[in-house]
Design brief:
Length: about 300
């Protein structure tokens, strides 16, 4: 008589154990990372939201409304006024021309130098890399005076060439230092198999090694484009006329002359950030891709 209830109890407990779901333990580290990510995103997005709302507000809305409040009337005319007042087409075309020439040319020169130092056996190559690393640490402000005198004697002030050459001089060392490690990480078997097939050194560099370091090139392209687009110190020293002004100089002039027109001012700043956003969206998919996965088989 007592054996039957005991058996039922055992069967019932087994059924409850089977029916109970296997809940994984909470990963508090992941939860903490997500919270930190959301807080950091809020710190970045709130100022941008304020700037975006302000760009559509009138002076009456700015005087009476709250900072995060919606405008009573969405003034798209602020953007048209900003384009006309700030000479956006002139400054934007200047910055775009300088960036389009400097960024690809600088990456090409840096990639050629880094490939030669990393893949071609030469004496004291590491010392040369160390010199590039030290050169990348030199602050721009130290060289503004000598650079101005040198460009003045060469009659290159207020010219595109006079602006692009210093940009290359200060941008290439850092890129060489970064690309050197990427080229060194390529397995030797990749280059050896290409040489057995009769490939030249330049073909190995251009068709084999460069595609393998595409994520690094894309990251450097975006970073270099952003720094060139937003560079102010050298541009303010070299460029003298308003027709040669780049985007940072145009923003400064707009703020100095129309600093109380917060609607058009914020509209102008937003429009100047659009090219940088486009470049990032075009290259961001390469940031997390594997650089050398599948490069060597077997």
């Amino acid at each position: 008589m007592t054996a039957i209830p005991v058996a039922r109890t055992a069967v019932g407990s087994d059924a409850e154990a089977v029916a109970a779901p296997n809940r994984p333990p909470r990963d508090w580290v992941t939860i903490g990372l997500w919270v930190a990510l959301l807080v950091t995103a809020a710190f970045w997005l709130v100022p941008f939201a304020v700037m975006l709302l302000t760009s559509f507000k009138s002076r009456a809305d700015l005087a009476s409304g709250s900072t995060l409040g919606l405008p009573s009337q969405w003034l798209w005319s602020n953007y048209a006024d900003a384009v006309d007042t700030g000479d956006l087409w002139i400054s934007g075309s200047n910055s775009l021309l300088v960036s389009v020439i400097k960024v690809p040319l600088g990456l090409l020169l840096a990639a050629l130098a880094a490939y030669a130092l990393a893949r071609i056996h030469m004496r004291r190559a590491k010392w040369v890399v160390a010199v590039f690393a030290v050169g990348s640490m030199v602050p721009i402000q130290v060289a503004l005076g000598p650079m101005f005198q040198l460009l003045l004697k060469a009659d290159l002030l207020d010219t595109y060439v006079g602006l692009i050459l210093p940009y290359l001089a200060f941008g290439v060392p850092y890129q060489v230092f970064m690309l050197y490690g990427s080229f060194r990480a390529i397995p030797d078997e990749v280059e050896e198999s290409a040489r057995l097939d009769g490939a030249s050194t330049f073909r190995i560099f251009w068709q084999i090694c460069c595609p393998l370091i595409k994520p690094t090139l894309a990251a450097l392209f975006v970073l270099d484009f952003v720094s060139t687009w937003n560079e102010y110190a050298m541009a303010s020293t070299i460029l003298q006329s308003g027709s040669m002004a780049t985007i940072p100089l145009a923003v400064q002039n707009f703020s100095a002359q129309h600093g109380t027109d917060y609607g058009p001012l914020n509209a102008f700043i937003i429009m100047t950030a659009i090219p940088v956003l486009i470049v990032y969206l075009l290259f961001q998919r390469y940031f997390v891709s594997g650089a050398f996965s599948g490069a060597v088989k077997g």
